[in-house]
Amino acid sequence: MHTHPLSVRGFFAVALLASGLSLMLPGCAEAPAPEPPPPPPVDVAQAEARDRIEFQRIPGLLRGVESADIRARVPGFLESIEFEPTSLVEPGDLLFIIEQEPYKIALQAAEAALARVTASADLEDTRLRRLRIAFERQAANELEILEQEATVAEARGEVLVARADVEQAKLNLSYTEVRSPIAGVVDESIFDVGNLVGSGENTLLTTVRRMDPIQAYFEISERVAIRGLARREGNPEAPHRIEPHPAYMGLLTGEDYPFEGVVDYAENTLDSDTGTIVLRATFDNPSAELYPGLFARVRLPMEEAKDAVVVHEAAINTDLSGKFVYVIDTENIVAKRPVTLGERQDDGTIRVLEGLDAGETYIVQGGQRARPGMPVTPSDYEPPAPETPGEQTRGSSSGSVGSTRTLASANNRASLREGGAN
Length: 422
What we know:
Layout: H1 5-24, E1 41-46, E2 48-64, E3 67-71, E4 76-81, E5 88-89, E6 94-98, H2 101-136, H3 142-175, E7 177-179, E8 184-186, E9 196-197, E10 204-209, E11 214-221, H4 222-230, E12 245-250, E13 259-266, E14 276-283, E15 295-312, E16 317-319, E17 322-328, E18 334-338, E19 340-344, E20 349-354, E21 361-365, E22 377-380, H5 404-418
Parallel strand pairs: 1-22
Antiparallel strand pairs: 1-21, 2-11, 2-15, 3-10, 4-6, 4-9, 5-8, 6-7, 8-10, 11-14, 12-13, 12-15, 13-14, 15-20, 16-17, 17-18, 19-20
Helix pairs in contact: 2-3
């Protein structure tokens, strides 16, 4: 039989293809599945039950206890300024001198007029005595006596007027020495030496503000006010006065509340527009480190909470649904737990009002790697060591509650008094 050359070549091609496929088939076998990643590590702690004091944090404004506008009460050129701006002054300290010569001359003229009318009154009195002697000798009639008595009375009236003019001249001269009526810190002079002041109006020269003590005005909500009123029950004097209540204050910077004072005033009407009532707390300020007009953070202790559930503030997360924490069960499986929060504490913990029970385990750090339903590898959370306090900056901006309207309202009402939330 004769074999065709193409058939031989086709046979070898088929054989090669078959051997190639046999070599490739083992490579098409399914690869083994990768091992799952280990559960992510997280730091956990247990929710604690503590007895603690509930606080309200409220913004406010500082105002001086009293303030005095120093004004020129007589016209004249300003001769001298007798103080340094921002210095402490006492009642009666000399602040300004207005030119005195015109008022010294006016006093001398008033004293001269008094001497003249006094001499005239003495003369008329002498005439009256002589007329009475003459009347007894029938050398004068009764009408002359009556006329002279009227003249004497008129002369004595002129003496009284002249004495009043002298007193007014002395008073005007005293007004040329402008003195502080209160103790406090004096502002800079509005006018320089040589300016005409007091002409046509009582020109404002400067202001003096008493700095110690200092007062913080702030507003609390109706809800907080009702809680405070409830504590007055049983006190027969409660409707007529506010009970002294401790208050703590810090400034805009810092984290603490270093100033201790007392709430000593509450407005007698709730503002129906804002739903708030104005309170005032007074703080000692012997070194004048607090200034009127500064923003204040006021912290008021409200009530003692028994067995309050607290967690580390670092455990709190936020999404569109609100605040929540991640908890883990006995098998280290994560669950998301919505919570309602109370007040933050100075030790970095925060009260949980709803959503978490004491003893439950929650994630403090590492929550960004956790998801509900997934396992985690927990380890005990170690709180950071407290920082060593250095140069303490008074005050803090944390925890402030309120609005621009609230602050403006408190400021305006406090200003009116000087002139006479959560």
